[in-house]
Amino acid sequence: MSTEFLTVGQSVPPVYGIEKTTGVLRFPADINLPNMLWMKILRSPHAHAKIVAVDATQAEKMPGVAAVITHKDVPRVLFGPYQNEIYPLDEEIRFVGDTVAAVAAKDWNIAEEAIRAIRVSYEVLPAVHDPEFGVQPEAPGAVLHYPESHELKPGDIRPDQLGTFGNVIGLKEGGPTVVNQRGDVEQGFAESDVVIERVFRQSEVNAVSHEPRACVAVYENDTCTLWCSVQDPYRLQDSTARVLGLSMEAVRVVSTNLGGAFGVKVTGRFALLCALLARRTGRPVKIWFTREEESLDSHNRSALTHYVKAGAKKDGALTAIAVRTFLDNGYWPFGGLGQNIAFAICTRPIDLYHRCPNVKWEVFAVRTNRPSTGPYRGRADAESHFPIESVMDELACKIQMDPIEFRLKNRLQQGDDLCSAPTKIMSTVWLEEAARAGAEKIGWERRSTLAASSNGARKKGIGVALVIHSCGSNPAGISEAEVTIDITGAISLFSGTADQGSEQQTTLRQMVAEVLGVLLDEVGGCNADTSTCPFDSGPFSSRTVYATGIAASRAAEEVKKQLLELAANSLGEVIGALDIGKKSVWVRANPAKRIDLGQLARLAGGSISGKGIHNAKEDRLFAYGFAATFAEVEVDVETGEVRILRLVSSHDVGRAINPMIVEGQILGGAAQGLGYALSEGFYFDQRTGTALNQWFLDLRTPSILDIPDIEPVMVELGEPTHPFGAKGCSEISYVGVAPAVANAIYHATGARVTELPMTPDVILRALYDGQRNRM
Amino acid sequence: MINFKHVDASSTEHALSLLAQYREGARVLAGGQDLLFRIKKYIVKPECVVNIKTIPGLSYIHSKPEENLRIGALTTLSQVAQSSELRQRYRVLSQAAGVVASPQIRNMGTLAGNICQDVWCWYLQDGFSCWKSGGKFCDLAGGDSRYYGSIMGGHLCLSNHPSDTAVALAALDAQLHVLSHRGKQIIAITDFLPGHSWVNGRLQCHILRADEIVTEIEVPFHPTHSAYVKFALRKSWDFAIASAAVSAEIQDGILNDVRIVLGGVATFPYRSREAEDLLRSKQISEAGAAAAAEAALQPAKPLKMNSYKVELSKTLVRRALLSLADRKILN
Amino acid sequence: MEAQDSHKIVLKINGNLHAVETDSNWTLNDVLRNRLDLTGTKRACDYGGCGSCTVLMDGVDVYSCSILAVEAQGKQITTIEGLGNSENLHPLQKSFALSYAAQCGWCTPGMILSAKALLDRNPDPTEAEVRMALSGVLCRCTGYTSIVQAVLDAGRVMREKR
Fold first, then answer.
1. Nearest chain C CA: its distance from B198 CA (Å)
2. Does residue A602 lie in a domain region?
3. CATH class for domain C6-82?
4. Would you write out chain C's pLDDT as a tens digit for each of its 162 residues?
5. Three-class SS of residue B25?
6. Which end of chain B is more exposed for a tag (fewer CB within 10 A), N or C?
7. Which residues of chain C from 119 to 158 reach within 8 Å of chain B, CB to CB?
C-alpha cells in the first residue's frame, strides 16, 4: 500500500533501538545525582482510617535521615491527575497502601528503616470493600472528607458536579453514575425469540509496568525540576506549581522514556512529596517504587460485576440489551476518571451494536477503600467487551447463526451517530473487513469439524470477539507539536508526548519526514520535556499516532509552507514550480537551481518554526478502531488448563505508518490480553482489604513459555481524518482476547465461563458446577 | 534491608563455629534465591549471614549403578537438571530440578537450598502478621487459600511446602546428611520435612537446627521408571498448584515397588502409602491408577477455596502413573 | 541502629576492575546501579521474579538482585554495557535494535544477556531452546515473538562470523 511514500509505510528501525540495547537510555530510575537523597513512603496498613497522631522523632534522629514529612507538613492544596481532588498527604487514609508519610535519607536501606520507625496511631474507620455493598444505604462512606469548594480553583470540577453523597460517583442520590438508554428494553425482551441472562465477574488487574515508577526532584533558586515516570508531564507540572506555590515557568518536568506505562503512570503523591522533600532538604531527592508500591499505588483496571440480559430474534436481529454494572472505583473523592470510564463502558459497545433498538445500561462507579482504578490499556472496552461479546456468542449459538454473521448483522456503519460521542458522527468502519481477514487467517471454517479432532480430555474450540476501541479521537485530548529547522538544516520535532515503549517518536518523525521529503534519520527531536516541548495531553487512548500525528503533520506542513515561500522568494520562482525533498528545495524544471534548508533558515533569521495543533473538540467526524480477535484453544477438562493454540488479532489500522511497530503493538497488547484472560487476577484479602498480589510472582504475567506466536493481521483501508490515513492501534488488541478465549472454551466444552481471569479453578467450576448449553 | 554481618565460610568447621556462635542470630546463605528475599521483606532478620558457597567439596553428583546416588548439598539445580546420568536413572529428580522457578534461579539455587526453602505465600506480605513473620495467625484458614493453602490440614501455618525437588526426593527415599558439632546424622527426607514445627524458636518447614548444615543428599532407591508432573498456572517461575512424583521398580509390567508423592497440596511432600499399597505387585492399568489416585486423596480436607485441587491432584497422580507404562510425555 | 557492616571489595565488571566500598546488605544490582552508575542493568521486582536484573557471572545468567555484592568478588561479571556500544554493537544488540524486539526497553538487557549465555553454549538453538533459555526474563510489551526472532537472527550472524 505504501509504494507512493518515501518513509511512511516502511518498517524503519526504531529511533531509540540502539540506546535501549546498549543500556545507555536513562529512565527516571536511572538518574543518579551528586548528593542525592533516597525517599521512601510509609504506607497505611488500614483500608480506612484517620490519623490521630504521628510520632516521627525516632526516625528523624536516625543517622543518615535528612527529613521526615507528614500530613502536618504539606501545603493543603489540592491536585490530582484527572481533577484536583487530593492533598499531597491527608489525615484520612483510604486504602491499604495509602500514603501516610515520607522520609528522605542517605540510602534506601536507611530510608526503609526510618519509615518503620515512624509511630502512627490511627482511628480505624469502617471500610467499603465491595461495590455492590457500597451502594447500599447502610454502607459506610468510603470517603469521609471531601475537598471544600473554596479549596478549588476556577475551572476545577466541583463536588456537586460529581456527587459527594453516598459512595456512587454521580449526581443523583441513589442513582447510577451513568445510564445509556434508548427504546424500551422490556418491550424488546417481549419481542425476543431468545434471551440470555448472565452475571459476569471480572477481577481487578494491575498493569504491571516493568519499570517501577520513579521521580528525581531538584529544587534550586525557587525552581523545581522533576524527572518522573509519568505520561502526563504537563499535569504534573501544573500540580507541582500549585502545591509548591510556584509559577508554571518555574517548574520543569522531564518524562522522555518510560519502562511501560499502559495508561497508569500519572501524576501522584509520590512526585509531589519528592518535590517537597527536595525543597525541604535542599538536595536532589529520588524515589523509586518497590514492586509492592507499583502494584498498590497504581491505577488498576477496576473489578467489575455485570448483570446482563440480552435478546434477539431468530433472524439474528438484536432486540434488547440490558446491563447493570458495578465498578470498583477505588478511593478517589471525586472519582478520578471513573465517570469517564463508566460512560465509555455503557456507550461504546452499544455503538458497536448500533442496530439494537432497545438498550438500558446502568453503570454504578462506586467509591471503595481500595487502590485507585483508572485507565489501563484498553480502557473501558476491556471492561465491557467480556460480558457483551460472551453474550453475543451465546445468542448466536441459540439461534444457530454463525457468530460472526450475527454480530455483523447488528453492527454500526460509517456515518452513524454515536452515543459514546454525542456530537460526532462515525468515520470509517472497516470492522467487517477485519473480521473476514481474521476469519480467513485462523481458518474459521474448520470450526464445525474441530470437535472431531479433540482427543479425550483435551477439547478444542475456536472463538471470536469483535471490538470497538479508541484510536485517537478523544474529546478531551489536545496535542500541539512544533517542527524547527536550524541553520545546519537539521530538522527537529518537538512533542509533549512521552514514550512508553510504543516508539511514538519513530512514527511521528516518519510523518514529519514524509511531509518534508526526507528520510527518518534526518529528523531529530525531543519529547516530553515541559521546558522545550509544546503541550500534549499524553499517550493515552491510543491517541499519539492519530492526534499527535495530526499535530506533527500540521506543524511539518506549516514549516513546508514557510520553506517554499522563502525559496520562491530567494530563487525568484512561483511556489508551484518548486519541489521539496532531500533537505533542499529546487526548481522542478531545473533541479540545479536549488537552495538547501539550512540556507533557508538563515534567510528566515536563524531558524524556521512551524506549529500544529489537534483539538479533538473541533472534529465533526469521530474515528474509532475496530478489530476481530480469534482464539483457538485446547481445554483439558480434567485439570482446567487452557492452552492457546493460536491467537489471530485482526485490525482496521487505517494505514500502518511503521508496520513493524504496529505489529509489535498488536502482539504486545494481545499478550497482555491473554494475561487478563487466563492468569492475572489482582485479588484482595476479604478480612483486611489488603491486595494479595503485590509480589511479581503473584502478578502472573505470561512468560515466554506461556503464549504462542500471536498472528497479527492489518487491514489498511485508510481513515480520511488523518493525513496519512492512520488509526492508533496500541491498545485495541488487548480488548478482544478474553471474550474470544471464553468463546473458544464455550465452543470446545459447552461451558460458559463468566469470571476473569479464567484460571484452572474457575474453568473447573464452570465445567462442573455451571450451566451448560451445548452447541 | 537490615544490617547484617557477612562472613565467607572457608570450611564446614568454620561454618559450624559461626552457627554455634550466633545460634538463632545466624542464617546459612547458599544460592541466595530464598534467603535474600526473606531478609529484604523483613521476614527474617539475621545478625550474621554465613556464606557456605565458599566451602569446597560440597558440589558433586556421584551416580554409579551399584551404589547409592550421592549429591553434594551445594550442587546447583541447573547441574542436577542437566546431568545426563540423572536424566537416565533418576528421571523424577532431573525433571523436578528442571522445572524449579527459572534458569537464573536454577543457576544459583542449590539442591539442599531448594529442599530447605521456606513457604511462598501472599500472607507473608507486610500487612499480615503470620506465624512465619512473628505473628500468631494464619490467614489461609479463612482467607484466600486457592493456591498456597494445604488440602491435607496442617499445624499453625497452612502453607504448602513449595519445593519440587523435595517431592521427587521423597519418591526416591532420599536421606539428608546433616552435620553439626555433635557429629553427622542421616535423616530421611520425610522426617526432615514433617510439616511446620518449632525449631530454636522459629516455625520452620524442616527440622534443621540453628547450628546444623546439610552436606549431602543420598538416594538408596534405584527406580527403573520415574516421573515428575507439575501443574502450575505459568510454565516458568510458578510453584506447583499441584504436582505428583512417582517412582517404581517395574519388571515385566509389574510394579514390584512404587512410591507416590504429592506436592503443592500439603505442608510437606505428601507420600501416600495407601495408594502405593494398592498398586504393589500389580500391573499398571487405568483402573489401578484411578484407584490409587482416589486413595491418595481420600484424607483430603480442603480449605474454603482450594477444593478444586483434590480432583486435580487425582488427575496428576493417574497420569504420572500411566506415563510410567508408556513413557508418554505429559506436558 | 548499628553501624553498617562495610566491606572494601574489588569487582571485575566487563573486563575492568573496580574497587568499591559496599555494605553487606547491598546486592550486586545495588552496586552496579548506584556505585558504578551502570544503570543498563534494570530491576523490576528485587527478588528474582522478573529477570530484568539479569547479568552474566562467569558466563552464566543470574539475577543480580539475588546476589550480595560481596559475593560477586572473584567472578567475571558482564552487564549489557559490556557487550557493545553504538560504535560497535554485538550482533544481539544489533538484531534487537533493528527490529522492534525492544519496546519499553526494561527487559532488553536481561533478554540479551540470557540470549548471549545461550548462544555461547549452544550456537545453533531451536526456537524451543531459545524460549527455554529466555524463560527467566519476563516481557510485558512485545508478546515475545520479536525477541525470539531477534535471537535466532543474531545466532545466524554469529555463526557466519565464525
1. 26
2. yes
3. alpha beta
4. 445 689 999 999 999 999 999 999 999 999 999 999 999 999 999 999 999 999 999 999 999 999 999 999 999 999 999 999 999 999 999 999 999 999 999 999 999 999 999 999 999 999 999 999 999 999 999 999 999 999 999 999 999 987
5. helix
6. C
7. 132-133, 135-136
